[in-house]
Structure formats: C-alpha cells, structure tokens
Amino acid sequence: MKQAHYDIVIVGGGMVGASMALALAGIASRYGLQIAIIDAAKTEQATPTAAGDLDGRATALALGSRNLLHSIGAWVPLQDYAQAIVDINVSDQGQPFGAQIRAQDVGQKALGYVLQNQHMGQVFWQQLNQQCAGQITMIDQSKVLELDNAIKDSRLLYERQGTTGSEQVEITCQLIVMADGGRSNLREDLGMFNYQQSYEQVALVVNVVLDKPHNGLACERFTAHGPMAVLPLLTADEQHRAAIVWTQPNQRAEELAAMDDDTLLTELQNQIGYPMGEFRALGQRQIYPLTLSVANEQARQGLAVIGNAAHTLHPIAGQGFNLALRGVFALAEQVHKACRAQASIGSLAYLQAFVDASAGDQQRTVGASDQIMKLFSSGDKTLMIGRQLGLLAMQKMPLAKTLFARSAMGLDRPLADVLPLTGGRHD
Ligand SMILES: Cc1cc2nc3c(=O)[nH]c(=O)nc-3n(C[C@H](O)[C@H](O)[C@H](O)COP(=O)(O)OP(=O)(O)OC[C@H]3O[C@@H](n4cnc5c(N)ncnc54)[C@H](O)[C@@H]3O)c2cc1C
C-alpha cells in the first residue's frame, strides 16, 4: 500500500473544505506546511458552468463572509459571479405589515451577496490550483474509508478510482480536518455523537427567469405552508434570474417533485406576488430534507470537525455556510497560533481553543435559525400576531433594524487573524 505524510489533511472539498484550504494557504506558505485536501467527487473546476446557468443551489453570503474571503484574496475572483443584495423585503402573506431593509439605511453598499454554489466551488478550486500548488495537494475522486486521531500522528486511509482500477493510500498527519458534510459516516465511525432532529420539512430549491431587472432586491415571504426566500442572481446571458428556496412540509415533497413546470411557476408566483416581476421559466428543481444537527464533539487531539459535519441549520436565515466560514477562520487562527509558538498543530489545547471560540457563535446562529423557522413556519394565531408586531417594530425602529441587519450581515464579529493567500501580514 502507498504511504504519504502531510501536516494537515482536509477530508471533503465542498465549499467549506475548499475555503479551509484557502484560509490555511498563507500559513502553510509562511511556515512550510504541506496540506492535502481529499474529495470523493470530481473537482468542480473539471466541469465549468456558464455564468447564466439556471440550475443549482445559491448561497447568500453575509457581508462579514465577504470580508473574510477578501482577507485571504478569494473575494476578487468571486466578484464576477456575485450579485449584491441592496434591499430586503420581508412580508407575511395576507397580513398588513412588512419590513424593508435597505443597504443605504445601514450605511452599506450591499447587505450581502448571492453566488451560485457551483461558481464558488469552481473559483475556490481554481485558486487552490493556481496560487497554492506548492503547499496544497488536491486529491479528487478519492474516498476516505477510515481515519483515526492520535497523540503523535493521525492516520487515514483513502481509495482512489483511476482509469486502471483503484488504489489505496495511507496518510499520516498532525491534523485531520473533517469537512465531509452532514451525512458524515466517518464521524459516526469515530463515535462522535451528533444531536439530530428532523424538521419534517423539505426545501424546494429552484431558479427562475424574471421578466425585468430585480435591482438587487431579495424577498422573504411567510406563506401558509412555509417561508419562501427569493434571492437575486447575477444577470447573465441577458437573463434576469432569481433563486428560490421554499420550505414546505414533508408531505408536499412528492407533489412538488411531480408538478409540471407551468403549474409550479404559477404556484410560486401566487405565493410571492410580483415584487420581483413575473417568473418566466424554471431551472431544475431540487428537494432537500431539512434537519437540525450539531456534533457535540468537534475536536480531539489531531482532529477537528467543521462545516455541515459539525452543524446543519435550517436554511431559512441563510446562515449555514456563513457560520461554517467563521469556524474555518477560527480554526485557521489556532493553527497560526500553534505555528507561531512552534507547537504541534494537532495539539488539543489549540483545537479546544477553536471549539471554545466557535461555541457561542454556533449556539446563537443555530438557535436563531431554529427560532426564526418556528416563528415563521407557524399558522398559530398568537405567533402570527407576534410576527406581525416584530415586523412592525423593525420597520418603525431604525436601531432595531440596524442591529438586526448588522447581525444578519455577520458584521458584529471581528475578523480572524489569518495570513492572506499571497504572503505574510501579521506576526
Ligand atoms: C436549501 C439550502 C439553502 C441554503 N442556503 C444557504 C445560504 O443562503 N447561505 C448560507 O450561508 N448557507 C446556506 N445553506 C447551507 C450551506 O449550503 C451549507 O452550510 C454548506 O453547503 C456546507 O458545505 P460543506 O462543505 O460543509 O458540506 P458539503 O457541501 O456536503 O461537502 C462535503 C464534501 O465532502 C465530500 N465527502 C464526503 N464524504 C467523503 C469521504 N468519505 N471521502 C472524501 N470526501 C468526502 C463530498 O464529496 C463533498 O464534496 C443552505 C443549505 C440548503 C440545504
């Protein structure tokens, strides 16, 4: 069996694993670390998608996340794909009060940005290829079969499918970062308990073509069956586009999957009305079961857990990746500290500091997403009145609106101390 050694191995090259590698690139270059990132799938950049592609999920990036990505040089190449959110319209179907949050009211050019996930993935992997080839080895189409943390060297085994068959490789390293997503078998194999609760809901995800420019407007609408978010996508190939995420009870999943395009277009339009104009065409729809999960162990000696492997949130507030990115930077900061102190980067003291630094943020964000979901998915009269009062208060009290907007934008936390992609900055 082949053997290899790295300082850090990241398991999973989704949006979180790839951004972890990017956040570590400057540190790796400064301290001569070797990093490997392993993913079971083919890397995103192998199949570039057109800017105007109507399929696939989109992510609302908070302004704080934009700043984090900018700090490591990853924002500039992402900008070409990013649509700024300049207005958010929150409304409750059939009810009088709503709230409007404008970027200019909170002294910003944008409240956040929307990017299609496939474009983010492609840009992250391109950046890793072009800027970090000396420190970071990318291993795709390779499934990690088992892993073990240890005091001295953590160990993992992966299998690569090649044209001439499969081969297994054993790796030793100081630190394994698990970014293998919400259905992580590896975490279970390690006996790391994961609190899980089904929402008994699905998210219908579909992109639409609009008949007119959206001017950066995003809408959040509370409908009888569940909340619907409509996010503006970058206009491309002369098409004005938006991404829809509609939370629905589990029982509607089959009906929504089977509905013909015209009926679904009408259904979506009826729910949201015409604040973004008329929906003209649909991309492919996707349906995701929704669960809340939090791993109650997120670090061991030589091992850390990040992204969906550590927590999955209800998508109503669009915070899953934003929270994960803050975790990525909190971990990179501890790796940086360990390097500066010439300590082992797998040392539990540093990894526990990462867990401690992230815990409050995780509790707040997971809790807030859960509460917002309960408040806004309910047809209960008392909760509906509370929700209307909340929207009214937000509209009438500029301070409440500003605080809410700053928190949602991820601007209420300082930037982590991480070296930029292109070289040293701190020390
Ligand atoms: C409908 C919906 C809308 C959302 N909208 C937003 C939003 O607007 N804003 C926001 O911040 N967040 C949003 N999120 C959350 C966000 O999408 C997730 O937080 C994010 O995608 C998690 O990425 P990840 O890299 O942790 O996991 P994943 O994307 O699941 O990636 C895991 C990777 O690990 C690889 N892998 C798994 N097992 C192995 C193995 N054994 N060996 C090798 N590789 C392996 C997989 O191939 C995969 O590439 C939304 C989520 C949903 C469902």
Keywords:
427 residues, nine-stranded mixed β-sheet, six-stranded mixed β-sheet, disordered C terminus, binds flavin-adenine dinucleotide, FAD/NAD(P)-binding domain, single chain, alpha/beta
Task: Describe the 3D structure.
- The chain is an alpha/beta fold.
- The chain has a single domain, classed as FAD/NAD(P)-binding domain.
- The protein has eleven helices and 22 strands.
- Strands 6, 7, 14, 15, 16, 17, 18, 19 and 22 form a nine-stranded mixed β-sheet that branches.
- A hairpin with a 5-residue loop joins strand 10 and strand 11.
- Helix 1 packs parallel to helix 8 and helix 8 runs antiparallel to helix 9.
- The longest helix is centred in the last third of the chain and has 30 residues.
- The chain is globular and about 65 Å long.
- The C terminus is likely disordered.
- The structure holds flavin-adenine dinucleotide.
- The site of flavin-adenine dinucleotide has 34 residues, from helix 1, strand 4, strand 10, strand 14 and helix 8.
